[in-house]
Design brief:
Elements lengths: L1 H10 L8 H22 L5 H4 L9 H29 L1 H21 L3 H13 L3 H11 L2 H56 L15 H5 L2 H32 L7 H25 L2 H22 L3 H29 L5 H28 L4 H19 L6
Helix pairs in contact: 2-7, 2-8, 4-5, 4-6, 4-7, 4-14, 5-6, 5-7, 5-8, 7-14, 8-11, 8-13, 10-13, 10-14, 10-15, 11-13, 12-13, 12-15
């Protein structure tokens, strides 16, 4: 009987379940990540307009610096804080980072000029805890269910983005830009409470944590492939969103305050479609194939988007497909990093990963804005498709750990 069961288990996938402790860790860390990301996303839809009421806010260069300063300091600090979380533990590093995030938000709320906001944004960015949060989730889950846990975090990012599009105009309209920064700081306190009291401690790591040089991570070819992948993913996202809102406004007749009516169903629909793909990937252990298919989907949808842009309904469909691929990759890639990276420097590896993500956000926004300013908005999609194709070639050389 047992032999037959074993043979059956070899051919029929066993339904994998999160343990109660894994479920609690996954949910609380996803809520922590979502709350922090909401605090970041709230600024993006309205800042360029709301800053006009602040001294110095008519200077586009300084406004851009206020937006981008956070991403740049995040990119600088992800690796040091990832290493620190390997050495001192995930919770202490995350708590310290959140305190910096709150302090920066308060400085922005009290700022009398755009320069004060820039200072606050720099301080906010110093609290770069994404790598430590992701490493904590990897510590708290088994490899067999880790992609599903990462999917909760990946989905939370999409939901936070959708929520920000709804809440941001309402908060600025009711309380002004200063009130928006106070709301962001309040979200920081919510994150601090979750990290301090609600997230369960991860099981002790049986492999001693040792400090290694950054060169050890940079010599790891598969980690480099994954870092390049997340750079491409967020480069494409930011570049595309330089163009997509204007297209949706023109095609659907929506103004900026109404675009949430499009984004919300697109994000929710893509999340629902993403769940079966993630479950199939786990049960069949098809991580490499899922990576390649999702990137190939990105290439295809980015090529199709300029043509779909002639119809509001068609563009919404392609946008939904884009976010299905985006959400799958947002869940799959950090899971693969945690599987590929040796336990001795998992936090450092995720620090490099999150640094590449931050650099992709910065570079994508700059490149997309440059292309649009040159009068070639459709080139954004084709350039993004070309980058995704290069990524696909890189992904084919990835050696799956399962």
């Amino acid at each position: 009987m047992s032999n037959a069961s074993a043979r059956s288990g070899d051919t029929v996938p066993v339904k994998l379940r999160l343990t109660p402790r894994e479920r609690r860790a996954s949910i609380t860390l996803a809520v922590l990540f979502a709350s922090r990301m909401l605090g970041l996303f709230l600024l993006t839809p309205v800042f360029a307009v709301a800053a006009l009421a602040v001294p110095g806010g008519h200077d586009a260069t300084r406004v851009g610096l206020a937006i981008g300063a956070y991403g740049l300091t995040q990119a600088v600090m992800q690796i040091p804080l990832g290493m620190a979380s390997d050495r001192f533990g995930r919770r202490p590093v995350i708590v310290a980072g959140l305190l910096l995030f709150i302090l920066g938000g308060v400085i922005c709320a009290l700022a009398a000029s755009i320069d004060g906001i820039i200072v606050g944004r720099v301080i906010q960015g110093l609290g770069a805890v994404s790598a430590a949060i992701t490493a904590w989730l990897a510590d708290a889950t088994r490899p067999e269910v880790r992609t599903r846990a990462m999917a909760m975090v990946g989905g939370s990012i999409g939901l936070s983005f959708a929520a920000s599009l709804v809440l941001s105009p309402l908060l600025v309209g009711q309380f002004g830009l200063s009130g928006l920064f106070w709301a962001i700081s309040l979200l920081g306190f919510v994150c601090l409470f979750i990290a301090t009291f609600l997230v369960p401690a991860a099981p002790p790591n049986p492999i001693p944590i040792v400090q290694v040089s950054a060169a050890a991570v940079l010599r790891h070819v598969d980690l480099l492939r994954l870092n390049f992948g997340v750079f491409c993913l967020h480069f494409i996202l930011m570049a595309m969103f330089i163009v997509a809102p204007g297209m949706l406004s023109e095609l659907g007749g929506y103004d900026t305050t109404q675009l949430w009516k499009v984004y919300l169903p697109v994000i929710l629909g893509s999340f629902v479609l993403m769940v079966p793909a993630v479950f199939y990937t786990e049960t069949r252990r098809e991580h490499k194939r899922a990576l390649e298919l999702a990137v190939a989907m990105l290439v295809t949808v980015l090529v199709v988007m300029p043509f779909a842009g002639r119809s509001f309904a068609a563009f919404c469909v392609t946008l939904t497909v884009f976010f299905v691929a985006f959400n799958v990759l947002e869940a799959l890639q950090p899971s693969l990093v945690s599987r590929v990276a040796p336990s001795s420097y998992k936090g450092l590896a995720l620090g490099f990963y999150n640094t590449a993500q931050s650099l992709g956000v910065f570079a994508g926004a700059v490149a997309g804005g440059l292309l649009v300013s040159l009068g070639t908005p459709m080139a954004v999609f084709y350039s993004a498709a070309a980058l995704a194709f290069i990524w696909l070639l890189s992904a084919k050389g990835f050696k799956s750990p399962v």
